[in-house]
Every structure is written in C-alpha cells, then in structure tokens.
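Anyone? Bumping this.
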Amino acid sequence: MKRIAIIGGGISGLAAALALEKSRKDGAPLEYVLYESSPRLGGVLVTEHVDGCLIEAGPDSFLTEKPWATDLCREIGLENQLIGSNDPDRKTYILVKGKLVEIPDGLLFMVPTKILPTVFSPLFSTRTKLRMAQEWFHPPHRANGDESVASMVERHYGAEMVDRLADPLLSGVYGGEASQLSVRAVLPRFAEMEAKSGSLGRAMLAARRKMPPSANGPRPLFTSLKDGMQQMIDVLLSRLTSSALRTNAPVQSLQPQDGSWLVSAGYASDEFDAVIVATPAHIASRLVQMSSSPLAAELRGIDYTSSITINLAYDQRVRSALPPGFGFLVPRSEGRRMLAATFVHNKFPHRAPPDRALLRCFIGGARSEDVLQLPDEQILHIVQLELRQIIGLTADPLFTRLYRWKSAMAQYGVGHLERLQRIDNLLSQIPGLALAGNGYRGIGVPDCIRSGGVAVAKALAAIGLAEAASPASALSGSKLLP
Ligand SMILES: Cc1cc2nc3c(=O)[nH]c(=O)nc-3n(C[C@H](O)[C@H](O)[C@H](O)COP(=O)(O)OP(=O)(O)OC[C@H]3O[C@@H](n4cnc5c(N)ncnc54)[C@H](O)[C@@H]3O)c2cc1C
C-alpha cells in the first residue's frame, strides 16, 4: 500500500484529495492523509447565511471559461446547482475624479473592440482615445523578456489606461499592482497577440470573430453555486474518506528520508511515499527547506498580498437608490483605501432578499497592506466613509461582516514564468514531492483545482502508480472583480 500526504485543506488540497480518492476507488493500492492547520477545511472558500443574505467571505464565483471548477462540480453531482452571473445587468464603473464612470461596452479587459462606445465614453481623455486609434496600426512586437503589465499596456494605450483600467482590474483579481505583475504570467494571451499581430485591438477582434456561436446563447462571465462557494467544499468533503482528513493539524516539518517522507504535525509523525504541498508558496517554502534550500528560496520569492472583504446589508431604500450594475473599481490615483465594491444583489440577485441591498467591499492588497493592522471598527468606519463619498450612501447598514485574508493572494511578479521553470527543474530532482496552490499557474479557483489534479498525477507517477504527468502550461489569472 502506497501512502500520500497532502498538506493544506484549501480547494487545491481538496481537489488533490478527490483525485486520490478516485484512484483509490478505481483500485489503486494507496491511501492518503490530508493535513489542515485550521479547524475547518476549504481555505478561503467560506460562505455564511445571515438574515436571508448569502455572504461570501472569499471568492464569490469563478470564471466560466475556465472549465476545471465546473468539471469538479459536475463530478461531485453539483451540476444542477451551478448558476451564472446576472449578465444582462452587467455594468462596471470606474471611479474617476470622484465620480463613477461606466466601462464602455466592447472593452475586453482594457482592449477596445467597439468604436462608438469607446469614442463617446468619458472614461478616457481625447489623448487616450487617439492612442487607441493608433494602436490599431502597431506592428508585431516580440519582447526580449518578461515585462510588467503596466509597461505593456502603456506602450499600447498610454499611462491613463494603466491608471484607470489595468491597475484597478488587477487590484480586483490579485490585490496587486500593474507595475509589478508579469504580463507573461498574468496576461499570456496579450503577450502572444502582441508578438503575432502587434495590435491588441485587431487581434482581440479577430479572435472574437473566430469564436463559434454558442448553441445556448452567450455563457455567463462568472459561475457560482446556488448555495454559495462553500457548497462545493461541503459536497466535496462528503466524497472523501473522513478518517483521512486531519484538521487542527499544522504540519511543522517535512523530512525527506531514504525514498520516503516524514511528515510531522503536532506531536505525531507519519511516513509517506509522496507528499503534495498545497499551501501558499511562502508556507511551502518553510516546509521544503530540509529537502532543498534553493527550492525554498525560489518559493520564498513568490510574494503574497493580504485583503479584507467587508459585506454590508441595507434596506430597500438604499437598494432603490444604488446605481444599476455589478459594482465599481477604484484606481490608485483616487487616493482611497477601497479597491472595489460589488453590488451582490445585482450580480447574483437571489443572494439578497428583494428588499435588501448587499454590498461587498475590498480593501488591502499591495496598495495598503497596513490596513490589516487596524481593528474591525476602524476598517468599517473607513469603508462606510468612502461609500458615502463615492456613492452618497449615508444609511446605517442592517448588519456587517468582515473577513481578513492574510498573505492569501499570490503576486506573479515579472519573471514569474522563469521562476516556475527553475522550480520545476529543482522539483525534478526531488521525486515524490509535488506542489499545488495559487502561487504557481493561476490564482483563480479553477486553476487551483487544476493544480491539485496535476500534483496528484505527478505524485502517482513518482510512486509508480501512473504515467508521468504532463506539465500544466496555460497560465492565467482568475476572474475580474467585481
Ligand atoms: C478575498 C478573496 C477573494 C477571491 N475571489 C476570487 C473569485 O471570486 N474567484 C476566483 O476564482 N478566485 C478568487 N480568489 C482566489 C482563490 O479563491 C484562491 O486563490 C484559492 O481559493 C486558493 O486556494 P488554495 O487551496 O490554493 O489556498 P488556501 O485557500 O489559502 O488554502 C491553503 C490551506 O493550507 C492551510 N495551511 C497553511 N499552512 C499549513 C500547514 N503548515 N499545515 C497544514 N495546513 C496548512 C491553510 O490553513 C489553508 O486552509 C479570491 C481569494 C481571496 C482571498
């Protein structure tokens, strides 16, 4: 009987456990143990029900175009629980000089694909609009190496596009800054389009035209679950062997022995043939120190930011007075603490009763990591003050819920892909050790699920129970908030 340990019980580790459970049921001679330091499984996927409202503490949905989360939901029997975002009402605003300005129709991430809405949009100055027109004629450009998203976007559309769109959109996804994040890791399609076509606008339009029309109409941008993201965790857990799941079990050390691994959690140590480390990379770094200090150093180099989500519920009067749409993003130049706010009652209408407004605000990220030091009351005060200044919201909330996520969002800095290559090279010398999680090849829930499956394939191959895993290649970010 072969034994595999999984360290970390977030969605990455649980997806790995599900894959191992499947192999076991298919007859593979193996058993697994999953170690989770906290009392609950699911990591940042947490849903609460308060006074008729469904509150998401961490992710509220995932990008529909990435199949791995939907596939997992289907596999565990949740297909009929999948719901889409309310896209007919999708509208996102950007705060510009204190006022909310709608992102014009046809803007894909920051690439304009429709002329008229962009020309008439007050979001951009005439100068930026001229840059957009010139961008159409950019010749193909193959960059020598990686660069930041800000530098690429500025080359195409100018600094205003970085400030008003690239930076706020990336803050919403990574809590990161466009000037720090790697274009190759975060927006690989942009790097490819630039190399092939030069103009991102032309390439995006051509790609759109090639897309076959969907038989059931356009798919929603975001997918979630009727009962919230934690529904995925709860049902997934019911498919696992409960005696294999150890909560309140922080792994302190991982010691390579002659062809095996000693995992120590609390006062107990246990021996395994392979180990999947599915924690954030900064924790993985500590755990692999005894196996390879160069690997530990590479993992330490992957930065993480922290964030806080603040949910506020209001009555019908507030709901009627709020702007339509999914919410707004706040550029750094506006000098606010808030990164973004989602109008949950519009994005997923059944998550709030018809006479309630539910807002979900984000604060923190690379922009203001220090905010995590503040007590809850002060953070709530800041959020309510900024809501008053931005959307004129003066009413007292019916209730609030605040969740802190310390060092939970990985930052794919410039050179991230090269770092991953070095990590892969180092791992190839350590058979039986695999990594999963949001620090590597995608921060969104679907990518994390995929990372768990890839890690299992690698671990099984190392112990002679499967063919060698094919390396995951596609890199991309998660959904865009709000
Ligand atoms: C506020 C927020 C909003 C987000 N919104 C979205 C969204 O809308 N859509 C989307 O697709 N993605 C979103 N993301 C990103 C996505 O949710 C995460 O990247 C993903 O869920 C991470 O899963 P994970 O299992 O890799 O890590 P985690 O969920 O962080 O789980 C890691 C687990 O490891 C455990 N652990 C740590 N150290 C040890 C140890 N020594 N021993 C044992 N266990 C240990 C931790 O307790 C934790 O449970 C969001 C993230 C955050 C924080």
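Late reply, but here is one note on the structure posted above: Residues 7-13, 35-38, 43-45, 58-62, 250-251, 278-280, 283, 307, 309, 405, 408-409, 437-438, 443-445, 448, 478-479 surround flavin-adenine dinucleotide (CB under 6 Å).
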